Each structure stands twice: as C-alpha cells, then as structure tokens.
Amino acid sequence: MEQKSHIHDNFLLTSSLAEQLYHYCAKDLPIIDYHNHLDAKDIWQDTQYDNLAQAWLHSDHYVWRAMRSNGIHEYFITGGAPDSEKFAQWCEAMPYLLGNPLYQWSHLELKRFFDCDLLLNPQNCQTIWHHCNERLGKGHNTPRQILKQLKVKALCTTDSPLSDLQYHSLLAKSDFDVQVLPTFRADELFVFNNSHALNELIECLQTSTALSSNTYSDFIAAIEARIASFHHLGCRLSDLGLTTVDFAPCNSQQAEALFLKARQNESLTEYETIQLNTRLFIDLGQRYYKYGWSMQLHIGVLANVNQRRKTALGGGTGFSVMNDRLIAQNLAQLLSALDEKQTLPNTVLYNLNPNHNAVLSCMAGAFQDSDSSAGKIQFGAAWWFNDHKEGMEAQLTTLKNLGSLGRFIGMLTDSRNTFSFSRHEYFRRVLCNLLARWVEEEQIPNDASLLKQTIENICYKNAQRYFNFNHTA
After folding, report:
1. Measured between alpha carbons, how far is 410 from 163 in angstroms, rounded to an integer?
2. How many CB atoms are closer than 10 A to CB 391?
C-alpha cells in the first residue's frame, strides 16, 4: 500500500468544510508577520545558508531543548561538531518527537521549500541532507526568495533601542517590496537595579543621541529621541518582556530622586526599583501613544532556570520555563495608569502560561475604547510553549468565549529564520479546521460569507488595519 505523505494538501484539515475554508479562503492570503527575531542584515544581504543545519540548528533554542531531551551531547547541539554530524543527531532525535510541533513544522518546511516528502529519521538522513544542500547550493531559498514566495507584505524584526538600524535603512531605500520594519524592544532600558548597567546604558544613549541623561527627565528625552529614529524608519511597534508584573506609584519628584540614587551607585530597594520601572513603563506607553504605535507585552517567562547551563552556555539557550506568578492586579494597574490619562496605546497581551488565557482575554475587554480603534487591546497569539495546534485552539477558543474573535490580529512566527514563516500556513490550517468543527457542533452558523470574512480578517486584514504600517509621520 502506498504511504501517504505526512504533509499533503489537506494536512490538519479533518472535514470537507475545513478543506474548503482553507483552500478557498485562507491559503493564498498575504502575510503580515508583526513579531519575529529575523536579522535585517540577513534580509538585506539575502544571506544564503550553506547547509540545512545552518537553517535549522544554529540558532533555534526550541530545537536545542528537544535534542537535549533525547540525550544528545551538547557538542552536537551548540558545540563545535561539524554541521553534518549535528544534522545526523537531529535526525536521530526526530522519531522520538512524534506529535511535537517541531516534527510537524520541520516536515512542513521540507515540503514547502525543498519539495521533500521523506520523514526525518536516521535512514533518510543522508538523502535529505544531500537533496536539500544541493538546492541551497544552487541559490534557492534565500530570505528574500522565501518572503516573496510566501506573499509576505510586512514583517517586524525585534531590535535594541540602541540599534543604529543600518540595514533597515538600506532596505527602506531599496527596491525590495517587502516592508522590513524595526520593533523597539525596551527590555534593556529597565536596569535600575544595576547601577553599572544603567550607567553603561546612559553612555550608549548619549553616544547615539548626543543627549545627556543627568536626570530622569533627560533620560526619557534621550529615549524619545531613539523612538523618533525608529519611527522615521517605519517602526510602529514596541515590545517588552515582563518576567514579573509589578506596580508601585511613582511621581516625577520620586523618579528624579531614585534615578539620581541609582546613578550614584547606591542600591535601590526592591520597592524603589519597582517604582522606577512603573514610572518608565508609563512614560514609554505615553510616547508610544503619541507616535501612534502599538505596544506588545510578553508576560510570564521564568528565564534561565538552570544556573549551571546558563553559566556554561549563556542565557536564551533553551532553559527558560513558564512562570506561575499572579499577574492580574498589577497588570490592570499598569494599563489603568495609561488609560486614566487617555494615553493607552493599542496593546497586544501575550502569556506564556496558558493558565492565564482567560485572565488576559478578560483584561483586554476591560480596556477597549469606543473612541478608538476596534479591538484596541488584543489577547495575543499563542506564544512559545503554546505555539502548537492545541495551544492555538485554546487561545482561539478563549478569545471566542470572552472576547471578539473577528477582531483578532492573527498569528506571528516569533522566529529566527525565514523557513519558520511557513508556520502561518500551519496556523491557518488550525484556524480553518477549528471553525469548521464549531460549525459542525452548531456553535457558529455555516454561513459562507461570514466564515470567509472572519478568516480573511484574522489572517491578514485585521493586522493590516491595526498596525497601519503604511502611515507616515
């Protein structure tokens, strides 16, 4: 009996209605990927991978974590092993990852970009390695080619507030018609508990803006100068990772006194640090509102929990987990402080802990604004450890039950390579299959135009309207 390819036309589509919705409503829509970790330099240079291991294994901590769970030595993960041996170890691990989203994503990428139907396993390892490397060697599957192939209209990288944005500037002046826009990632501005880091940050800000930061108000002025530089190059998004969600009132006089204390290498108490962090959060939010930006808040990471491996390999190498701290009360106060002054920007709330799905969906509903854009506060897409079929379905179901599903701005990749952009297809298949199931369960009507409108809005049009990337200052 002929074996059916794992990735086929109706992959993840379990009914005839799901097939119709995907193929006729979702499949050919353009893509807006508003949060990823691509390097604008790679897109500008149209960097070509030398081999498949470079594409998949060199920078993906999802993969590293999965390989470690299969007992693979670090030498073959982040160590100095030849790429061919790293790929062979990945193929050794893959059969044991059956059902893991990495299994599905990897085979989807093999099919879409290399027209390869083989399963990743030790028996097929060398055939896949040579087949894919031959295509890469012929100049196929460069970042620009993939972005064009997938009909990407705009993508937003994630950038340090201190970045010179050189390659975004070059791309903006080029004839490449995919918008590659920066995102203002503010995490490194929140260093008030570390005087050395704060003073280094201030020196860098002075170098990039020619503005001193002797006072807190000077500090904010220098940050706003960086925001203006980002805005000039098309940035319409900020991002902030909230490992904990804290709130403590801090007026301008307190902020100046605490900032001076930190600048003078005096240790702040935990409460004083929270005060300054709260003040900075509000000051940033007000400026995002002023510039017409959207604010993304990524909530709930307990970072680098394995101290031994962090010491050996550094942070962000696959040893972060979900946090279970309470978030509702302090998050409400942060948002309310901005809303009270009518300076709450469009805001996207992401949670790493799925137990917070309902919390964030409810929170979004409490801060919608009838005088502003529809869907102003978004319960964001399933993120990181939730970025799989069941996680996406859970996020969409919560949004259906507690929010406004038809206003959802859709999926993003959070990716570090362009092959991962095929995950938009993965999401669209999951979405269409879920809508079809709800029709069959009589939760929603089987109305062709309503379903088509909903799918088109979620997959493309809502994000297009929400972020307004074509607007110029």
Report:
1. 28
2. 19
At the top level of CATH, the class of 143-190+201-251+282-467 is alpha beta
Residue spans of the domains in the chain: they are: 49-137, 143-190+201-251+282-467
Residue 421 near residue 152, CB atoms below 8 Å: yes
Query: Between vectors from CA 69 to CA 63 and to CA 70, what angle results, nearest 5°?
Result: 95
- The letter for the amino acid at 14 is T
In this structure, what token pair is assigned to residue 379? 């319960």
Cα separation values, 77 from 64, 401, 420, Å: 6, 42, 19
b or e along 116-127 (b: 16 or more beta carbons within 10 Å of the residue's beta carbon)? bebbbeeeebee
Can you identify the CATH homologous superfamily of domain 49-137?
uronate isomerase, domain 2, chain A (1.10.2020.10)
Q: What is the DSSP letter of 240?
A: E
How does pLDDT run across 97-155, given as a tens digit for each residue? Answer: 999 999 999 999 999 999 999 999 999 999 999 999 999 999 999 999 999 999 999 99
Give residue-wise pLDDT tens across range 380-412: 999 999 999 999 999 999 999 999 999 999 999
Identify residue 389 by its one-letter amino acid code.
K
